[in-house]
Design brief:
Order of helices and strands: EEHHHHHHHHHHHEEHHHEHHHEH
Strand content: under 5%
Radius of gyration: 22 Å
Strand order of the largest sheet: 1-2
Helix content: 40-55%
Bound molecules: zinc ion
Structural class: mainly alpha
Mean pLDDT: 87
Largest sheet: 2 strands, antiparallel
Number of strands: 6
C-alpha cells in the first residue's frame, strides 16, 4: 500500500525534479543538462521510482550509481507514497547476461570502436536506408500516385504504409530508446519520425518505456496488454465479450482501426497529461507541443496530394491504403512478440510485481523469431527478448547478444522461446488469439507440449536488502 502523502501535489515538490531510486528520493536538477543520453530521456524518470529505467538502460551500474551518489538527497520525502519499481540489478540472470555483454561485445576497456558508447553505434546505414525509402515512397505517393487516379493512389498509399511501418518498427523505436546513436539530437530526430507516421513520440516514450518495458505482459501494469481492448482480448483476465470468440476472424479488420484509436488516444493523453499506464510527470512544454505539431506534420504529408490536384476519391483511397497497411504491419509485428501462450504470466505469481526477478520476467514474456534478416527489417523487434533486456543497445547488436542470452538462460533453467521464422511465430499467435477468445483463465491457453511452450513461473529475487546508491 502506498502512503497517504502526495508528493505530486505537494507544493514543496512542485518545482523539484524528484525521482526515487532504490527507496531514496533524489533531485535530478544538478544532472539535468549533463545526462549523456539527454534530458528528454531523463524526463521519464521524474515523478516516479526510476530504478528499472535506470538499471535497464545503463550497461555499467557503477557509473549510474556514482551519478546518484553525487545528487542531492531529498530527506523527509514520502518515498512510501511512490509505487515501487522492479530492480533489474537484483536479478542474477540479468547481471550474468549484462556482465558478459559488456565485456565480450563492447569491451570494458572502452578500446572498441565507439568507445563507451559502442552499444549505441552501428545503425547509421540502416537509418539512412529506411529514411531514404520513406522519402521515395512519399514522393511517389504525393507526386505520382494520387494525382493519377484511385488505383495508383491505393498502390502508392500501400507502399507508403510499408515505409511508415518500417520507420515505426525501427528508427523511431530505437531512436526513442536513445539507442540509434551516441548523439542525443540524432536519437531525438529519429524518434520524432514516429510523429510523421501518425503516432506521438512523446506518448510512445512514456507508454512503451515506462509501462510496457518495465512490466512486460503484466496484466495490470503493462498497458500493451490493454491497448487492443475491447476489440481484441489478449489476456484471459480481461472481461470476455460474446464477440471475442470471433476475434481471430476479425483481427485483420481491427488492426487498422487501432491505428485510428491511437490518434484519439494521443490527444486524450495530451489533455489529461496521462498516456495510458504512465503519467507524463516529466514532460516539458516543448515535448507536449510536439504532440500537436506532429499531428499537423503527419496530416500535411498524408493530405498533400489534395493540394497537388488529386481528386477527393483518390486522396481518400490513398489515405485508407496507407492506414490499413501501416496499421496491419505494425500491429502484427508488435503483437506476435508477447502474445503466444508461453509468454503470458501465470495467474498467481505469488508476490508484488516489483519483487519479481526482472531479468527472468523479460526473458519469459517475449518470443524471438528469425535472425539477422528479420532484425534488419524489424529493427530488432524479432529478437524481442534481447530488446527487452537491452533497450538502450542499438538493434544491430541483438544477434550477437542472443547467443549470450540463450546460454545464460539455459544455465539458469529459464525457458527461452524462439521460432525460426515469422510465419512460425505467427501461426502460434493466431492460435493464441483464437484460444484467448474463449479462455476462462490464463492457464487454459498454456501448451505444455515442449519446454519452450510452458508458461514459466516468474522468479523472485532475494528478499535481502539491496545496497542503496549512497
Ligand atoms: Zn522497445
Amino acid at each position: 500500500m502506498h502512503g497517504a502523502a502526495d508528493p505530486w501535489n505537494d507544493p514543496k515538490y512542485a518545482d523539484v525534479k524528484w525521482t526515487v531510486y532504490r527507496d531514496r528520493a533524489y533531485d535530478l536538477q544538478p544532472f539535468y543538462d549533463k545526462h549523456p543520453g539527454g534530458s528528454w530521456l531523463l524526463n521519464l524518470a521524474i515523478g516516479r521510482d526510476c530504478t528499472a529505467l535506470i538499471e535497464s538502460y545503463h550497461l555499467r551500474p557503477e557509473v549510474s550509481d556514482a551519478r546518484f551518489r553525487g545528487l542531492p538527497k531529498l530527506d523527509g520525502f514520502p518515498v512510501d507514497s511512490v509505487p515501487k519499481s522492479p530492480r533489474p540489478n537484483d536479478s542474477p540472470l540479468y547481471n550474468a547476461i549484462r556482465d558478459r555483454v559488456r565485456t565480450e561485445l563492447f569491451g570494458d576497456d572502452h578500446k572498441y570502436s565507439g568507445g563507451r558508447f559502442a552499444h549505441r553505434t552501428g545503425g547509421d546505414a540502416a537509418a539512412a536506408t529506411i529514411v531514404g525509402t520513406a522519402a521515395v515512397a512519399w514522393t511517389l505517393y504525393a507526386k505520382c500516385g494520387a494525382v493519377a487516379g484511385v488505383l495508383p493512389a491505393i498502390a502508392t498509399g500501400a507502399f507508403l504504409g510499408l515505409a511508415g511501418a518500417w520507420i515505426g518498427l525501427t528508427i523511431q523505436h530505437c531512436g526513442n530508446h536513445g539507442a540509434m546513436s551516441p548523439k542525443v539530437w540524432v536519437n531525438n530526430a529519429l524518434g520524432m519520425t514516429d510523429d510523421l507516421i501518425g503516432g506521438s513520440s512523446l506518448m510512445w516514450r512514456y507508454h512503451h518505456q515506462v509501462s510496457h518495458h518495465i512490466h512486460c505482459n503484466d496484466n495490470a501494469l503493462d498497458q500493451d496488454v490493454h491497448t487492443a481492448m475491447p476489440l481484441l482480448r489478449f489476456d484471459a483476465r480481461q472481461p470476455k465479450k460474446w464477440f471475442h470468440k470471433y476475434q481471430h476472424l476479425y483481427l485483420f479488420l481491427a488492426f487498422p482501426l487501432m491505428q485510428l484509436a491511437f490518434q484519439v488516444g494521443d490527444i486524450q493523453g495530451l489533455l489529461t497529461r496521462d498516456c495510458e499506464g504512465a503519467k507524463l510527470h516529466g514532460a516539458t512544454n516543448l515535448e507536449l507541443a510536439t504532440v500537436v505539431l506532429g499531428k499537423i506534420a503527419h496530416f500535411s504529408l498524408l493530405l498533400a496530394p489534395a493540394f497537388m490536384g488529386a481528386s477527393a476519391a483518390a486522396v481518400a483511397a490513398g489515405v485508407a491504403a496507407f492506414t490499413a497497411v501501416q496499421g496491419m504491419v505494425l500491429a502484427c509485428t508488435f503483437a506476435v512478440s508477447h502474445n503466444v501462450a508461453e509468454a503470458k504470466i501465470p495467474e498467481d505469481t505469488g508476490g508484488e510485481a516489483w519483487e519479481r526477478d526482472w531479468g527472468v520476467q523479460q526473458v519469459v514474456t517475449s518470443a524471438d523469431w528469425g535472425d539477422k534478416i528479420g532484425n534488419f527489417f524489424t529493427g530488432g523487434l524479432n529478437l524481442q527478448v534481447e530488446h527487452h533486456l537491452f533497450p538502450a543497445v542499438c538493434f544491430v547488436h541483438y544477434p550477437a547478444i542472443r547467443k549470450i542470452v540463450r546460454e545464460e538462460a539455459a544455465k539458469a533453467g529459464v525457458p527461452y522461446s524462439e521460432y525460426r521464422t515469422l510465419p512460425g511465430v505467427f501461426a502460434e499467435f493466431m492460435k493464441f488469439v483464437k484460444d484467448m477468445g474463449t479462455a476462462e483463465q490464463i492457464g487454459d491457453i498454456a501448451e505444455p507440449a515442449s519446454p519452450n511452450r510452458t508458461m514459466c513461473p516468474l522468479g523472485f529475487v532475494s528478499k535481502e536488502p539491496a545496497p542503496a546508491a549512497a
